Amino acid sequence: MNAIISASRLASDLAGPNPPVVLDVRWQLGGPNLRQAYEEAHIPGAVYVDLDTELAGPAGAAGRHPLPDPEAFGAAMRAAGVSGDRDVVVYDGGLGWAAARAWWLLSWTGHPAVRVLDGGLAAWSGPVESGRTVPAAGTFVPAPGAVPVLDADGAASLARTGLLLDARAAERYRGDIEPIDRVGGHIPGAVSAPTTENVAESGRFRPAGELADRFTSLGADGTTEVGVYCGSGVSGAHEVLALAVAGVPAALYVGSWSEWSRDEGRPVATGPEPQ
User: What is the overall mean pLDDT for the chain?
Assistant: First the structure.
């Protein structure tokens, strides 16, 4: 299954005999959740899911958005109407990061048919509704481990033996600025690959061929293992999604820089080169 879906295809599927479950995961870094925006207007039938409390565990030593407890995640997904035998489409406000996090978590826990709305709510031209959708309970039971995940040691190793992509902005990779975490820079050996370059001005993903060319130029030549990290495992999920569109499987380091930089024993590289 393609990892993304167009707004026109979603509209068609919603009008069909077996409509997908639709999850609204609009989110803003460092701000309150966007449930109010959801209640004001959302794609008909969509259920709101909060990234900070339902798509991540409590912030701490494992980073700002560590993996959620699988049982808690499963309960949240069932409450949102998710079942293993029904397609799921996730969307956010248009940036795609939060939707990709939901896509990745559902994929990691074994859901076989999850797609991200390409361009998010901004790409949707169909009707919207207000209020809250209360779906029938789903039956999804998470089975973690369906897609690869990295821990800090695995990310450090992959940066030397394979290809570890840093999805953050280039200035954070270089260490020029660090607005959130303890120290700026990157994991030694990681290659800068800002996830913002995976989308066009419209906010939609670049064509698969263009993405494949981009990742090939960064070292994903089909013969090496690929991993991704970012600040806290959100924009990195978007890069994993872009890699999937390009046909390149990749592991996500969920703790990402927010975990790595908390540990003063971990080495930090700065500047434009992997080192």
Answer: 97
Which is catalytic among the residues 47, 169, 230, 254? 230
Dump the DSSP string for the chain: --SEE-HHHHHHHHTSSSPPEEEE----TTS---HHHHHHSBSTT-EE--HHHHSS---BTTBSSPPPPHHHHHHHHHHTT--TTS-EEEE-SSS-HHHHHHHHHHHHTT-S-EEEETTGGGG--S--B-S---PPP------S-SS-EE-HHHHHHHHHHSEEEE-S-HHHHHTS--SSSSS--B-TT-EE--GGGGB-TTSSBPPHHHHHHHHHHHT--SSS-EEEE-SSSSHHHHHHHHHHHTT---EEESSHHHHHTT-TTS--B-SSS--
Q: What is the reported pTM? A: 0.97
Is 84 one of the annotated active-site residues of the chain? Answer: no
Which pLDDT does position 31 carry in this prediction?
Answer: 81
